[in-house]
Design a protein that fits this description.
Order of helices and strands: EHEHHEHEHEHEHEHEHEEEEEEEEEHHE
Largest sheet: 8 strands, mixed
Strand content: 15-25%
Number of strands: 18
Shape: elongated
Structural class: alpha/beta
Distance between the termini: 21 Å
Length: 357
C-alpha cells in the first residue's frame, strides 16, 4: 500500500467551477489546466471540466495529450506555437492559440493552412513578459483580419501582474491601457485571471481565465480559499512510520537544526522533498495527524519529515495531512517562503494520485 498519496477530489473541482460561474455569470470560462493541471493530473481534471467553455494549456504537447485521451473541449494554447510543425498540429487537433510576439505573427501569417485557426491576440499592458505594445497590437490585429489563416472569431486579451495585491497602482494602469486600446473593437475581451475575477468584477468581460482558484486555493495575498467559498481539490497525505523519544537537549534531523527544549516525542512521516514536500519548510510548519495539528521539527529530508507530538497518542500507521482539507496549502506555503502553486506543481512522480469522484 502506498504510504504517500495525493487525493484529487473532483467534486470539489466542480464546486469551484460552479463558484466561478456564480462570480462571473456573464463570462465564458477558460479553465487553466497547464502544468499537469497545476500538479493535479491533467487528464482526470480535463475530463471533469466538461462544463467549462474551454481549457487552457501552455504547450502543444499538453493539448495533443488531451486529444489522445479523448478530451473534446475547446483547447487554447496560452503560449501559442513556435514553429511550422506546431501550427500544423494546432490545425490538425483543432486548437486555439495565443499570438503574443512579432515572430509568432510572421510565422502564422506565412503559413498555408487548410483550416483557419482561432487566435487570441495578446496586449502587453504592463506585465512586460509577453504581448504586443499598443501600437504593435493594432497593426497585428489588422494583419490577422486580412489573413485567411485566422478565423474571424478573434479574442483580445491581456494579463494582470499584481491583481492579487488589490491596492497595487499598476492594476488601474493596466486596466486603463487595455480599455483604451480595445475601445473601438467589437471582439470578445479577456483580462481576468483568478485574482482579477475576485478583485475586479467589472473586468470579467467576455472570457475569464481561472487557474489557482479552480483548485480551491485563494489567489489573493494573505487569504485562504474559505474566504471565497472554494474547496481544496488536493489533499496530500502520508503515514507515520516511527515514533521516537527525544530527550531535552538532543537534536533532530540533518544539520541538527532543531533541539528539544524538554523531554518529548517525535513522529517520523514517510514524506520528503523527494515527494514534493518543500525542503525549506521551517520548524513549526503545521501537519495534521488524527485531526490535530503538530509542528514540523528539523530539516526536511528526501523521504522523511519529523513532527513533535509530545505525549499525544500517535501510532505507526496513523494518517497525516500535509495540506488540504482543514490545512490550507496557502498556510503551508507561507512556512516555506513559497506559494501554493509551487506546492501543487512540485508533487513528484512517486506520489500516487488517487482520484475521488
Amino acid at each position: 500500500m502506498d504510504s504517500t498519496v495525493a487525493e484529487i477530489n473532483l467534486k470539489a473541482l466542480r464546486h469551484n467551477l460552479e463558484k466561478i460561474k456564480q462570480l462571473a455569470p456573464k463570462s465564458n470560462i477558460v479553465a487553466m489546466i497547464k502544468a499537469d493541471a497545476y500538479g493535479h493530473g491533467i487528464e482526470a481534471i480535463a475530463k471533469a471540466l466538461t462544463k467549462a467553455d474551454a481549457l487552457g494549456v501552455a504547450r502543444v504537447g499538453e493539448a495533443i495529450e488531451l486529444r489522445k485521451a479523448g478530451v473534446n473541449n475547446e483547447l487554447v494554447l496560452m503560449e501559442g506555437c513556435f514553429d511550422a510543425d506546431e501550427y500544423q498540429s494546432a490545425a490538425e487537433h483543432n486548437l486555439q492559440l495565443v499570438i503574443h510576439t512579432q515572430v509568432q505573427l510572421e510565422q502564422f501569417l506565412g503559413l498555408e493552412l487548410t483550416t483557419p485557426l482561432k487566435v487570441w491576440l495578446k496586449l502587453d499592458t504592463g506585465m512586460h513578459r509577453l504581448g504586443f505594445d499598443s501600437v504593435e497590437f493594432s497593426s497585428a490585429l489588422e494583419r490577422l483580419q486580412q489573413s485567411k489563416n485566422c478565423h474571424p472569431d478573434i479574442v483580445l486579451m491581456s494579463h494582470m501582474a499584481c491583481a492579487d495585491e488589490a491596492d497595487s497602482p499598476l492594476n488601474a494602469k493596466q486596466i486603463e491601457l487595455f480599455q483604451q486600446t480595445v475601445a473601438d473593437q467589437s471582439y470578445p475581451l479577456s483580462l481576468a485571471n483568478s485574482a482579477t475575477i475576485i478583485a475586479y468584477p467589472d473586468m470579467h468581460l467576455d472570457w475569464v481565465r481561472p487557474g489557482l482558484m479552480l483548485y480551491g486555493c485563494s489567489p489573493m495575498a494573505g487569504q485562504t480559499a474559505g474566504a471565497h467559498g472554494l474547496m481544496p481539490v488536493m489533499k496530500f497525505l502520508t503515514k507515520v512510520i516511527a515514533v521516537k523519544d527525544v530527550n531535552k537537549g538532543e537534536f533532530v534531523g540533518y544539520g541538527s537544526r532543531w533541539q528539544a527544549q524538554k523531554n518529548t516525542r517525535i513522529a517520523v512521516l514517510a514524506v520528503g522533498y523527494g515527494d514534493g514536500y518543500p525542503r525549506h519548510a521551517k520548524d513549526g510548519t503545521p501537519v495534521v495527524i488524527e485531526g490535530k495539528r503538530y509542528p514540523l521539527v528539523g530539516r526536511v529530508s528526501m523521504d522523511m519529515i519529523s513532527v513533535e507530538i509530545g505525549e499525544a497518542e500517535i501510532h505507526v500507521g496513523d494518517e497525516a495531512t500535509l495540506w488540504g482539507g482543514d490545512l490550507p496549502a496557502e498556510e503551508v506555503a507561507g512556512f516555506a517562503d513559497t506559494i501554493s502553486y509551487t506546492l501543487f506543481c512540485g508533487i513528484t512522480r512517486r506520489v500516487v494520485k488517487k482520484v475521488i469522484d
